[in-house]
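With this grant's support, the team has encoded backbone shapes as discrete tokens. A representative record is reproduced below.
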Amino acid sequence: MTNYQDFFIEVENNWNLTKLYQDIAHAKQKITGKNRDITPLEKVCLRGLLGGYSPNEIAATINREPRGLRVDLSRGLYRYLELLTQRPANSLKDWRNVTSWLIQANYQALSNHNYIIDTDSVIKIVDVSLSGSINAPLIDIKVRNIGSQAAFLKRARFIFNHIWLLKSWVFMEPQLGAVAEAMPLPATTRSMSKKSRQVEPSYDYKFALPPSIYGNYIEEINISQCVGDRDVDRFTFSTSIPNEYCQEIVENKTKFYTSYIYDLQIEIIYDEDNKLVRTPHILILAENTDDDDIEDRKFFHKTFTISPDLQSINQVKEYSQRNQEILARVLHIDAVKSKFLEIILTGI
């Protein structure tokens, strides 16, 4: 018999699993009408989902048949989580929602490690730069070890200082009297240094950006990097944004896009005494679309000739004003900025 308790145990540092197991058991009892506890299989599936594993990946890990496991989740754990998080019945359609729903329900727990900000750190962040697409931003970090011993980088702590929501739009037929400034070509992404020598990335880590409703949000992930004495290293974080947070909506012959600006810093925790070094602010514009056509969209309006066909004019004005206020704040943050954000900032 498979010992499920050995799988996905790495999430224990980030989630209050004891309380979560208890509360899911209570939800299960209300739904089934029977005094049943959460099963070992339900526990391992929950841990896997919280760790970012899909049902198919969980099934492969614990040697279960994928289709059968998906059916079990739909009939059981998903329904208990809906009740636990006060969601409508049968509303959990995407396994990726589990993490965000439980974050909102305050089941996430920060690590108990005591970290020390090392002002004389032997690990120096030499360069931070951004690349990738608008739906998969890539954070590239280069570090140098100025010490006389190897340093072991073991965790990355993502600190989200703020998350803003922007709206943009494209009129799906001629401009109908709307006049807006054209967006310029992409600006060069600023980095901390231009003098570091070329080093190929040693590893790429995956990280899902959090829901838009959170500010002052922290999440830690395990990393494993060894930087030799007087040596350098380079590693990347491939980020993604969940599908449900960036939907395109077409209203009144206008296509609206949803974008998010993330203001974050990354702390790199290293060695057995948990010293850390922190990046500068990083500003990323991300959205769940394959369209990297930011320069073709409108974020601000100047004047409108009122037309009966343009029923969304008031909505566009509201979005424009909100965008202006947000970007005015973002403009004054000293940070490494993604090229897509730079494009918008040059338009205000």
Summary: The first strand starts at residue 116 and ends at 117. The first helix runs from residue 17 to 32. The chain has two domains: 4-104, 118-345.
